[in-house]
Amino acid sequence: MQPQWQKEQWFTMYSIPDKFQFKLEEPFLHEKLFIGSQYGWLIVLDQHCEPFLFNPLTGESIPLPSITTLLTVRPCHSITGDIVSYFAIIYCFIEDSSPFSYYTHEDYLREITFKKVVISSNPSVVSSNFVAAALVGLVSDLVGVGPDKGTWNLLREEELYMDIMFR
Asked: CA-CA 20 to 30 A from 76: which of 17, 23, 100, 135?
C-alpha cells in the first residue's frame, strides 16, 4: 500500500500574510526536493541535485549554478557525455586525515550537498540583482553566488552553521 502523500497529484501551498491556501498541480515538481522558500519562490533540487528557483504562481523557473561548480562535487560522465553519477569529496574529522572522494548516487548526494538556500531579494522584481547563499556539505560550508549566477563560491568554511538568512 502506498503512503497517502505519494498518491496526491498536487501540492498544498499556504500564504501566511494573506491567510490563503491553494492547491498546485505541477507534475514536473514530483520527485523534487524543496529546500526553502522566499518571496513567493520555492528553492528546489531536481533529481540530479541541480538547484533552481520556481514560482508556483507564474510557473517561471530560474536556474542556480550547477552542483558541479561546488568544490566538493565532480560529475561522472557516460561515454555519451551524460552525467550518470558524482564523486563527492568528503572531509574526515579524524586528526591528520586528508579528504577522500567516493562515488555516490543522487539520492545520497541530496543529503550531503545543499542543506538550505536563501535569496537576497525577490527575483520577480529585480531578477538580475539578487544573490543567493547556501549551506552545503556535511559540515555546512557557506557558499554564495552573485548576480552573474555563474558558480558557487566558498565564503566561509570550518564553521558549523545551522542556519543562514539575509537582513
From this structure: 135
How far from 5 is each of 28, 31, 85, CA to CA, in Å? 16, 12, 28
User: Binning pLDDT at 50, 70 and 90, where does residue 105 land?
Assistant: low
Is residue 40 a contact partner of residue 55, using CB atoms and an 8 Å limit? yes
* Distances 23 to 3, 4, 8, 93 between C-alpha atoms, Å: 19, 16, 11, 44
pLDDT digits 0-9 by tens, 25-69: 766 677 788 888 898 899 998 877 889 999 888 889 999 998 888
DSSP 66: P
Q: What are the Cα distances from residue 118, in Å, to 85, 122, 127, 136, 165?
A: 26, 11, 14, 12, 6
Nearest CA to 166 out of 142, 138, 141 is that of: 142
Among 132, 134, 127, CA closest to 150: 132
Altogether, the residues listed in the chain come to a count of 167
